[in-house]
Structure prediction request, 624 residues.
Amino acid sequence: MNVAAGHGASVRVEACGKTFADGSRALEPATLDIARGETLVLLGPSGCGKTTMLRIIAGLELPDPGGRVLFDGKDMTSVPIEKRNVGMVFQSYALFPNMSVADNIGYGLKIRGMASKERAARVAELVALTNITGLESRRIDQLSGGQRQRVALARAVAIRPGILLLDEPLTALDAALRDRLRGELNRLLRALGITTIYVTHDQSEAMELGDRIVVMQKGTIAQIGTPREIYFQPKNRFVAEFIGAANIIEAPLESGHLVLPGGRQPIGGDASLPAAVAMIRPETIRVVEAGTVPLSGIIDSVSFIGDRQRMVLSGASGKPLTVDAPNTIKARAGERVGLSIAPDAIRLLPPEN
Amino acid sequence: MPHKTFVWLCLLPLAVVTVAFFVLPMARLVVTGAEGPQGLAGYLAILTEPRYRATLINTVVLATATTVATLVIATIAGMFLQRHRFPGRAVLIAMLTFPLAFPGVVVGFLIILLAGRQGLIGEISNHLFGEKLVFAYSIYGLFLGYLYFSIPRVILTIMAAVQKLDVGLEEAARSLGASPWAVQRDVVLPALGPAFVASGAIAFATAMGAFGTAFTLATNIDVLPMLIYTEFTLAANFATSAALSVGLGIIAWAILALARSFSGGAVAAAG
Prediction:
C-alpha cells in the first residue's frame, strides 16, 4: 500500500502565538517539533488553542510576529496554504457539493494539471484504499457520514501531501462508527507514513492514534509525550484529570507515607515534602481483605461495567476514591475492604498554585 | 358540519377573489387578443410584424443585459460587503438597498438628472471634451435605470447566500492547491448558483415589465411595456395590446418557471 509513503516532511513550529484582532489570545507562543512520518495529536478541551495551532501549521492563520513555521527546515511562514502541499480533513469534511465523489478526490490533482487518465488511476487507487468502491459517481448528499469522512480523507491524501492535517475528523460521527473508523484510520496512517497532525478533544482517540500527544490547556502546551508518558506520568493535575480517570489526593507526607484517613500509604519517589498532591489511577488500586494492608475504606457503591467493576469508596482518602476492580471480585456496598496500591503507581504532582 | 365542508367554505372567499380579479380579467385579456381584425393570428403578429418583433427582441436583450450586469455587480459587491467589516458598512448597505423604495418614475427622474440634457455627465463631458454626452432618453438610459433598481433586489439575495457559504469549502479547495481564482470558479460560484438563478429571474422579469422608468425617460423607447401603452391608449388597438400583454406575461412567466425548476422552488415571482 505504498501510495504516499516517503512523502512526509518534518515540521517545526517556532514560538508561534496567535492573538486575534479583538485582542483575545488563542495561543501563547509555543514551539513544537514533529518528526518525518510521525503522528502527533493535539489534544485538549474546546478553546485550548489546538485548532489554532493546526491552522497556523496549515497556513490558514498567520502566527503573531516572531513565530515561524518550518517544513523540512524551510521557512513556510509566509507561504499560503495552496503552496504548502498539505492535505487537510475538516470536521465538517467540506466536500464540494457540486462535484461527484470521484471529482472531489481528484480535485487537487486536476488543479495540479494531472492528465485525466493518470488522475482517474490515482482516484481509483484511493477509492480502493479508503473502501468506498462503487460510490465514485455519487453526489455528496447521497453519502452517509462515514462515507463522507472517507472521501474527505481520500481527497486530502490524493495530492501526496507532505503533511496531513486532520481537524476532529471523527467528531461528527456516532460512537460505534467512530470506534470502527478510528481503527481503520490508524492502519491507514501507519501504511501511508505521512507526517500527520491530528486535532481532537477525545483522549481515547489521541491514545490510539498518536505517536506523541500534545496536551493543551488555555492556549498553552501542558505536556508533550507518548501516550504512556501522558497517562502514567502526567506533569500536572489538568493532564492527569483530562486523560483517563484519576484520583487526585491531597494529603500530608510523613517519612515516605501519605497520611490518609483510612491509613498510611507508602509512596515511591521524592517524599521529602511536607505534603503532596498525588494521582492514583483507579485500575492500579487492588481490593483485598481488610486488615491485610495498612489502607482500608468502605465501599459506597459498585457499578458493574462488564469488563470491570467500578467502585467508589469512602473513608480511605479525604474524598471518595474511585477503584476499577476485576469483574470477578465479589464485593458489596457497605463492606470494609483493604486497598493495596504499589508505591510506584502513585504519581506526585506539583502543588497547585 | 363535516370538517371537509368547513374547509371548503373557508376557501370560498379566496376562490371568489381569484376568479373575479385574476381568472376573469386574464381570460378576457386572452380573448381580446384574438378579437382583432386578424383573429387568432393577432397573436402571431407579435412575431411576424417587424415592429413588434424588433421591440420584443429589444426588450429581451435589454432585460438579459440588465440581469447579467446586475448579477456581476451585485455578486462582487455583495461578497465584499458580507465578508468585510469596516466603518460605514451599515450605511453603505442601507444606501444600496434604498432604491427598493423608489417607484420607476423617480428612478427615471434620477437618470435624467444624471445623464439628461442638463445632467451631471453631460456637464462633465462638456467641460472635458467640449461635447455634451446625453443618453438618458435612449435604451442606454433605461438600462442604467433598470440596473439601479435591480441591484438592491439582487444584492440582498447574494449577501444572504454568501453568509450561508461554508468557509471550510474554500479552505479545503485552497489546501488542495487551488488559486484564489480557481476557488471562486470551482467552489464559490457553483455554491451561489441557486441564488444567481433566483435573483436573476426576478431581475429579468422586472426589467421585462417595468414601465414607469421607460415612460419617464421617453415615450419612443422600443420596449414591450411602452409598445403596449401606445397601442392601447394612443392607437386604441385593444386586440394588439392584449396580445402583446399576454406575450409579455408568457415570456416572463416562462423565465421564472425555468429558474424555479433549476433552483428547486426558491423563486417567487416578484417585481
User: Anything to note?
Assistant: Chain A has a mean pLDDT of 88. Chain A touches chain B through 25 residues (CB under 8 Å). Chain A has eight helices and 20 strands.
